[in-house]
Each structure stands twice: as C-alpha cells, then as structure tokens.
Amino acid sequence: MILQLQGVHTHIGSYHILHGVDFEVPTGEVTMLLGRNGAGKTTTLRTIMGLWNASRGSVTFDGRAIGGEKGRLATPDISQLGIAYVPENMGIFSDLTVRENLVLAARNARTAEEIDAKRLDWIFSLFPALKKFWLYPAGKLSGGQKQMLAVARAIVEPRKLLLIDEPSKGLAPAIIQNMIAALRELKSTQTTVLLVEQNFNVARQLGDTVAVMDDGRIVHRGSMGELASDAALQARLLGLSLAVHQ
Q1: pTM assigned to the model
Q2: 127: closest CA among 183, 199, 211, 192?
Q3: Residue range 203-224, pLDDT digits in tens
C-alpha cells in the first residue's frame, strides 16, 4: 500500500469535517473516492497534501508519516516525495501559455527544451489539443482543454501518486470519453491514482478499488467491480443506480 490514512480527523476553523477516515491506496492501482456532495472527499485530498492539517490520526505515504500525529510535512515537501495534486479548480495559470504551465510543473526543467522529449510526446499522445495550443494562453482554452492541461502538469514528470479531484466535472460527454481514454492509458503505466469522481460511469470504467465517504467517514471499502455490479449497494451508499448513469 503506497498510501494509508488511519483515524484521520480534520478541522477547518470551528468545523469538524473528517471524523476518523480510514482507507488504503494500493500501489499501481486506481482507487476511487466516492460520496455525495459535502461528504468530505476534497477535504481528504487536501489533507493528504498538507493543505489542511490532520488534527488527529495519521497519513502515511510510501512508509513515511506525512500528516497527523506521527509526523507532519509541509505541502512542498510532500510534493517532493512524488505526489501530484490536480484540484477541482484545476490550478492552472491562465495568463501563461500551455508551454509555460508545463515548464513550471517540471521541476527539473527551466525551459520546454529541458522537459524529457519522450515524456512530452507521450503527453501529446494523450492530449493532442495541448500540442495544437502549445503557445496559447491557458485561460483561452476550453474547459475540457484546461482539465487536460491540469492533468498534464501533474504527469509531466513521473510521480508515485496522483490525487485528482473530479476531472470530468462540467465536461461534455465527448470530452469525458477523451479524458477516460487518457486516464486509462495512464493506468496502464501502473501509475497509482486516487481519484475523486461524481460521475459513476467514469468511476466504473477506471476504478480498481473504491472507498465511499459519507459525513466525513469511510462507510464502504472494496473492489470497484463489486460496487458496480450491485445496484442495491449503489443505492444505499450513493443514492443512485448505475443503470441511470450509463
């Protein structure tokens, strides 16, 4: 297991958001973090990244305590360990070009020419629009293209773990299928991903394992295939049936 959360509590001001979160992320797999709006999914990702502090419990990455009572690292130090985070708001720099956004994300490159050429070609194969709009300001991209850029920034260098928050939110169905295809290709490289997603059809296609949150707690853990094949379990945990999310 590359990531473990044990008894994690997170407070934001006077609000107690996470109430003893427990789950693990297997190495080389895609783990889906599902739940209704307000369940605590984004707070969980931000707690892993150290953007919000775990007030109790522990967050362990690759055998090292990075958050909580056993040890706490600052967000830049967590990133240096090999974790990349794609937030729900994508976090791109709108005034910079696509090229400049990727250069900033590539810690070992000061110019585009210093980015690993094979890796850049691989990114272009996943997201051809980024090559087409290489010199465009990122703020002028469509919503789907901005999401592609956000993911590309996260993978411009090899990472041990990707945290991705709702990559399909607000995207047209055709763009969602493109994103699924790209994430499947990423999955085939045995990259470990923790993915928050509201679109259950996306979760079904990409997930190996799943953790379901409700009211700041993990209420279900198991295989994604098991959840996808059990309409009654979906309805109980998520208030939905896969039959209406094809």
Answers
A1: 0.90
A2: 183
A3: 999 999 999 999 999 999 999 9
